[in-house]
Design goal:
- This protein has 84 residues and is an all-alpha fold.
- It has one domain.
- Helix 2 crosses helix 3 and helix 4 runs antiparallel to helix 5.
- The longest helix is centred in the C-terminal third of the chain and has 15 residues.
- Pfam families: DUF2624.
- InterPro entries: DUF2624.
- This is DUF2624 domain-containing protein.
Length: 84
C-alpha cells in the first residue's frame, strides 16, 4: 500500500490545473479554472500525505485561504476519493 500512497501523493504535488479540472469533472465536483490554477500552484512542490488526516486537514485549510471554503471542501472530497 505504501507504494500506492507514494504515487498518489506525488501526483497531488505535481498536479496541473488541467489535471485537477479533469479529475474534478470526472467525479462531478465543481471547480472553476481560476480555482484549479490557484490550487495547483499551491500544491506544486508540497510534500503532503493526503492519506494522513491531520496533514490533509492542514492542506485543506490552506486551500480555503487561497480558493475559498466551498472550493476547499470540494477539493477535500476529491482527495477522499483518491484515498479510497
Amino acid at each position: 500500500m505504501k507504494i500506492f500512497e507514494s504515487i498518489i501523493n506525488h501526483k497531488v504535488s505535481t498536479m496541473t490545473a488541467d489535471e485537477l479540472l479533469k479529475y474534478a469533472n470526472q467525479f462531478q465536483i465543481a471547480i472553476s479554472r481560476q480555482e484549479a490554477e490557484q490550487i495547483a500552484n499551491y500544491l506544486r512542490g508540497k510534500q503532503v500525505n493526503i492519506f494522513n488526516e491531520g496533514e490533509r486537514k492542514l492542506l485543506i485549510k490552506e486551500i480555503a485561504k487561497t480558493a475559498g471554503v466551498d472550493t476547499a471542501k470540494q477539493v477535500n472530497q476529491l482527495f477522499l476519493l483518491f484515498t479510497k
